[in-house]
Amino acid sequence: MRGRNLPYLLIAPAVIFLAVLFFIPLVQTIALAFETRSGPGLGNFVRMADDLNFHDAVVNTFRFVGLAVPLQLAAALGMAMMLRHLGKGRDLVLWIWTIPLGLSDLAAGLIWLAILNDKGYLASLLFHLGIVSEPQSWLTYESPFALFVAVVIAEFWRATAIVIVILVAGLQLVPKEYAEAASVFGASPWRIFTRITLPLMKPSIQSALILRTVLAFEAFAVVIAIGGRNFPVLVSEAYNWQNFNQEPSVAAAYAVVVMGLSLAATALWLRLLRTPAEQRG
Amino acid sequence: MAGITIDGIRKSFGNTTALEAVDLEVADHEFVALLGPSGCGKTTLLRIIAGLETQTAGRVLIGGRDITGLPPRARGLAMVFQNYAVFPHLRVRDNIAFGLKMTGADTARIERQVKRTAGLLQLEKLLDRYPAQLSGGQRQRVAVARALAVEPAVLLMDEPLSNLDALLRLDMRAELKEVLREAGTTTIYVTHDQTEAMALADRIAVLHSGRIEQIGTPSDIYHTPATRFVGSFVGSPPMNFLANGTRILGIRPEDLDIVPNGDGMAFHVSVVEPLGAQTLLTGTANNQMIRVALAGEHHIPPGADLHIRPRPDRIRWMDAATGRALPAGTEPTP
Questions:
Q1: Chain A partners of B132 at a C-beta cutoff of 8 Å?
Q2: pLDDT at residue number A133
Q3: H or E segment and range at residue A266
């Protein structure tokens, strides 16, 4: 009992948990996506692609991922570097920056809805300042660009903190001596950042990008809270097919597409930002 | 022309003073070792010269030019770090070329310098490797090659040999001395290892509690220590100190001779350590601990009672209260 079998016994709960709650539903979802009345086939995917919202959902999802993730990475890098130069108060600043981590996506979406809707804080402020003469409504189907910007802002505010946390942890693993050596050997602060710090942070940048890209492809609550059905993305369409159209198999097809995209993004970052063993510090 | 002038450098961290008004003059092409125990301020001083640390007061001049306010990259120096700080994501070749690339040297010069310094430090075959594929000693060579490749006017070294094992350290020490002599660079070398300082330096500055206790040639420092601290820190085994009223007699263990009974001081041997080249005796004279180093092998049993006498010209008298050496001419006769 003890000894050789103990490690397996100890990891058994986690393995069972993952098998029951992740692996089995995953297999079921994939099976469901390929299941049609006339036997296994791509029928659900054809129905998905023929739907009016599909094109918008794909475009919106890619635009959202393509803008939000790079913005978050750039901002988090800047913030992590600034934090590195703080002495006193560093922990307090980090703590404040990570407050959004404690909020649910839906709460974050609702906060930004309260700020940005036609009777929201921003509209009232602009009205009081006399910049606009009547309440404005931006978050409608008539202004998809404003919707898009609002969703990106909300997601940026909500999810940059996790990138900061990962990068700050990664940065702490890079000894300051490398930057010092580079500065002694004539590198300007920008070159130290691009030639030394950034390459040495590659492993943590990779983790942050994988996590953020996968989660951005799965963005749902923030999008629904701000855009409702006016800003379709892949996951919100899956939700609509499941709940409004009562078509679980088309919803499953969406889920498989999102999973495929997440896997592809992960594979891409693993490959692009690979750090060979011999280049590790 | 790249002499270094350190003019009244002071450094305090909050309430603690790391350096108090240090003055040091290093001549062009000179090799000066900053020697002292950990926490004496030697690394802080080196980092201030490099611009990695900001002094509380004072100035640093290189070749007559005041560099006090300049960032490290504008100071025209090179440095070898204690942990080497060889960039792990760059090949040996690119590590060596780093400084030249940053200062915008042309490709031909970079290539020439990489080849030359790699040859000097026997790294030719390792140029395409990454630092993780090298041994500690090889990484240390890369750090030195990177520093020499920029042909710096001033080279700063922070305990560069302390992470190597004892045998390798001995080899690297000799190698370093040869390489640096050829390069002719003005060098400041921080170490806590007195043997290293003695072996390498033209002059040694001994630091203690943020102050320079003595600056001099290795021979000066060894034979005529200015303070009791210098006498006890430099030399292994350290200098013997015998209280004598308000004065202290300092004498090196090898400057004590065994004399026939009835002459000199009675010396009771408690421990005998045959070290090959010398025999080290530890015992007491006048109820004070004394070490005697005799050249060659001697068969003296522990517990033996001998008589010893210090060589008069090697005695160093010090003031018991201040720990400072007494000026010549005021010494008492033993």
A1: 277-281
A2: 76
A3: helix A248-272
**Fold of domain A22-279:** MetI-like fold (1.10.3720)
- One digit per residue, the tens of pLDDT, for chain B of length 334 reads 589 999 999 999 888 899 999 999 999 999 999 999 998 999 999 999 999 999 999 999 999 999 999 999 999 899 999 999 999 999 999 999 999 999 999 999 999 999 999 998 889 999 999 999 999 889 999 999 999 999 998 999 999 988 888 888 888 888 888 888 888 899 999 999 999 999 999 999 999 999 999 999 999 999 999 999 999 999 989 999 998 888 999 999 999 999 988 788 999 999 999 999 999 999 999 899 999 999 999 999 999 999 999 999 999 999 988 989 988 666 665 5
Decide if A159 contacts A71 (C-beta within 8 A): no
Domain residue ranges of chain A, discontinuous segments joined by +:
22-279
Domain residue spans of chain B: 4-223, 237-319
Distance from CA of B68 to the nearest CA of A (A): 14
Q: How far apart are CA A54 and CA B195, in angstroms?
A: 77
Distance from CA of residue B152 to its chain's centroid?
Answer: 21
CB contacts of A277 in chain B (<8 Å) are: 132
- Determine, for residues A278 and B85 on separate chains, whether the beta-carbon distance falls below 8 Å: no
User: What CATH superfamily classification does B4-223 receive?
Assistant: P-loop containing nucleotide triphosphate hydrolases (3.40.50.300)
Tell me which residues of chain A have a pLDDT lower than 70.
1-2, 135-136, 281
The domain at B237-319 falls in which architecture?
Answer: Beta Barrel (2.40)
3-state SS of chain B: helix, strand, coil percent to 5?
Answer: 30, 35, 35
- Under an 8 A CB cutoff, do A186 and B88 touch? no
Model pTM greater than 0.80? yes
Pairs of residues, one from chain A and one from chain B, whose beta carbons lie less than 8 Å apart? 70
Lateral strand order in the sheet of B247-251: B240-244, B247-251, B316-319
Residues 136-195 of A with CB under 8 A from B: 175, 177-178, 180-188, 191
- Sequence letter at residue A28: Q
CA distance B56 to chain A (A): 18
Give the separation between CA B72 and CA A197, rounded to whole angstroms. 17
Closest CB to B89: pick one of A181, A187, A199: A199
Distant-in-sequence, close-in-space partners of B296: CB < 8 Å, separation ≥ 6: B277, B278, B279
* Residues of chain A neighbouring B52 (CB-CB closer than 8 A): 180, 183-184
**Phi and psi at residue B281, to the nearest 5°:** -110, 130
Asked if B72 and A180 come within 8 Å (Cβ–Cβ), the reply is: yes
Option in A178, A186, A202 nearest B99 (CB): A186
**Interface-testing mutation among A178, A185, A198, A274, with chain B (most B C-beta atoms within 10 A):** A185
Q: Which residues contact B268 (CB under 8 A, 6 or more apart)?
A: B283, B284, B285, B303, B304, B305
In chain B, the residue whose alpha carbon lies closest to the alpha carbon of A187 is B102
- Determine, for residues A185 and B102 on separate chains, whether the beta-carbon distance falls below 8 Å: yes
Q: Which residues of A touch B158 (CB under 8 A)?
A: none
Name the residue of chain A whose CA is nearest to B132's CA.
A278
> Kind of pairing, strands B256-259 and B288-295?
unpaired
ipTM of the complex: 0.86
Give the DSSP per-residue string, A92-140: HHHHHHTGGGGS-HHHHHHHHHHHHSTTSHHHHHHHHTTS-SS----SS
